[in-house]
Amino acid sequence: MTMKKKYFFFTILSIAGFTASAQYTEKKGNDVTSPLHLLKPDYDTPYSVPKTDEVKGVLDRVFTYLDAETPYEMVSKKDGKPFTDTKKIDDNVALKAGSYRLNSYEWGVTYGAMLTVAEITGDKRYSDYVRNRFNFMGTWIPAVKKAIADGRIKEKGYPLRGSIEPHALDDCGAICAAMIKAIKTGNANESLLKPTIDIYSDFITNKEHRLADGTLARLRPLKNALWLDDLYMGVPALAQLNRLTGDKKYLDDALKQFKQFVPRMFNKEKNVYMHGWIEGMDPHPQFHWARANGWAFLTAVELLDVLPANHPDRPFVLAQFQAHAKGLASYQSALGFWHQLLDKPDSYLETSATAIYTYCIARGINNGWLDAQAYSPMVLIAWNAVATKVNAKGEVEGTCVGTGMGFDPAFYYYRPVNNYAAHGYGPVLMAGGEIIRLVKNSDIKLNDSALQYYKK
């Protein structure tokens, strides 16, 4: 036998031996000898029931970060020293710099979320956060107004301006609703905040642009534009104003807005909303932006929270909430997140919208508005996904920055994400709070490797 033939012969033997060995190994773990359906999948997002202490740990990281990054103090512009004399404020005094604005709509969401976490967990730090900052605002807003009237403040960029001279629903709605919630839960002084609430109420009711039928609208980017975002910027505040004052006109207006936005902007085939609507535009491009859908979803929750059980419009709001939940569930990704454009899986995964949906669905389950067996597994995975986006510092990652209305896909696909996008923080807090309530009140566990809901 030549050397070449010997080499070929031993190579064939080696391959045959390896194959035999491989076949023998496979026989140790095949469909006959092993329950393959119990093999553990290699999930990217944790596929498990979150423990309540772990959820609270995530929330506490966010809280610690925000508490440090949102100081509530006036300081001298000259030396940065604290300034406390409300009667002497002038152009040389400013808010102590932080990373986020105390009176933005994003922080209205955050204040409401802090109250939710405090209620569910009993952790007083969260309600104190709200109380301290609202007391600060209630003390300084009238002082700033007086200084303007007296001529001591002449600069346009004065502290807390959005609460004194609001220019859009963004300046009013979310923070107005949060202030009233704080009052109603004993976490704010009504006499301090009522003058500011009156400013917000007047703007929403009398000054914001409206269509001929009374629907809240904007004059940008085009005339008579409906922004889905404005459901949240207007309706919850109106609903809470009804709670505060007892005046039926506010709740009537809130429901009118909801009933006039929905037929214009809800896609009944997809069961999700388009972001923007322009009066007279035909055909109308539809872009189903995730966070705007979150604001609409959250609006329905806010209405259901306050509407009496026998209110004639409650069935419509509940049915709309349920239809929207069904549509959103159909677009959840394998990682538990939702995409920046809901029906475009090549758009990026977005954190703030995922957190809002998590809160709304969990609250729907907890209040009996949604079927617990159908929605609990997917909402737990949604929370697990959100939790991966809270870094060690407590920052929320993967949140789309503020976004106007566009009529082309590139506009939404390429919106930046940033850890300082304030829109992510309130939703993460409220989502975690409702997930804690859900886990405490149920017995969700793995059965045949899948998450299943069981009543306690």
Which characteristics define this entry?
mainly alpha; two-stranded antiparallel ribbon; 456 residues; globular
Structural account:
- This protein is mainly alpha-helical and 456 residues long.
- It is 52% helix and 6% strand.
- It has helices spanning 3-28, 52-69, 105-121, 124-150, 173-184, 190-207, 229-245, 248-265, 290-306, 314-329, 351-366, 372-387, 409-413, 425-440; strands spanning 74-76, 93-95, 225-227, 266-267, 272-273, 276-278, 338-339, 349-350, 445-447, 450-452.
- Helix 7 (229-245) packs parallel to helix 9 (290-306).
- It starts with a helix and ends with a strand.
- The model is unreliable at 1-27 (pLDDT under 50).
Helix and strand topology:
Blueprint: H1 3-28, H2 52-69, E1 74-76, E2 93-95, H3 105-121, H4 124-150, H5 173-184, H6 190-207, E3 225-227, H7 229-245, H8 248-265, E4 266-267, E5 272-273, E6 276-278, H9 290-306, H10 314-329, E7 338-339, E8 349-350, H11 351-366, H12 372-387, H13 409-413, H14 425-440, E9 445-447, E10 450-452
Antiparallel strand pairs: 1-2, 3-6, 4-5, 7-8, 9-10
Helix content: 40-55%
Low-confidence stretches: 1-27
Largest sheet, if any?
Answer: 2 strands, antiparallel
User: What is the CA-atom radius of gyration, in angstroms?
Assistant: 27 Å
For the largest beta sheet, what order do the strands appear in spatially?
1-2
Helix/strand class: mainly alpha
Mean pLDDT: 93
Question: Could you tell me the strand content as a percent range?
Answer: 5-15%
Assign an overall shape: globular
Task: Summarize the entry for a quick read.
The chain is mostly helical.
